[in-house]
Amino acid sequence: MKNDMTAIPFYINSIAGATVQRRTDRYSFGKHLHTSMEIYLIRSGTCSMDIGGTTIQCSKGDFVMIFPNVVHSFYLDGSGECTFYHIHFFTNLFARIIPSENTPVNLIHALLFASPACHRQTADSELEELTESVIRMYQSGAYSPAEINSLLLCLLMHVLHCSGWDGTVRSQPEFQEKYVSFALNYIENNYMHKILLEDIAKELHISSRYLGKLFTR
């Protein structure tokens, strides 16, 4: 049988960590960034986060998903405690999934375009159950990458649905502006390192030639 080169390799491990954490007494994790997607679901108490220059306060039931390469911090304002679900995973696999036939935008970009730095909402029962299932499966150690990737995909699709994205791109110029904005943000966050156009294009999952044309217009 001829190999299908469009197949999505769900056997690749995407998850970097999934756990329940508890922080107390003015805990603080300073500003940082990473290449993984990060999820918080607050179970009790309160906390604050600075994400892409915007400060948010979170309490029980708040779901926050922070996109890769976005500068952020996490801290407690008081001496109380905060308990939360915490997940890290890489997005490469899910950037190969096109959630709508109306546009070539992949799943990760659709989420990014709907909420540029992070997605925040009150967790509904489905989102809470999916988050718990990811952590439970990861903690068990008895899972295949395909199984946990399937849960992550369901979680991402549910978040996309909650974001209100209708599967269309309003206009070509607006679509292109999103790519340019992402590229400029990438440069700002990585300016201390050598940056090639090919590196940014790889993050966006588009050709470097196409990205180059956007910057010359």
Automatic annotation (TrEMBL):
InterPro entries xrefs:
AraC-bd (IPR003313), HTH-like (IPR037923), HTH_AraC (IPR018060), RmlC-like_jellyroll (IPR014710)
Which GO terms of the molecular function aspect are on file? DNA-binding transcription factor activity; sequence-specific DNA binding
Q: Which stretches make up the HTH araC/xylS-type domain?
A: 181-217
Say if the entry is tagged with keyword DNA damage.
no
PROSITE patterns in UniProt: HTH_ARAC_FAMILY_2
UniProt keyword Acetylation, yes or no: no
Alphabetic keyword roster: DNA-binding
Name recorded for this polypeptide: AraC family ligand binding domain-containing protein
Native source organism of the sequence = Candidatus Mediterraneibacter tabaqchaliae
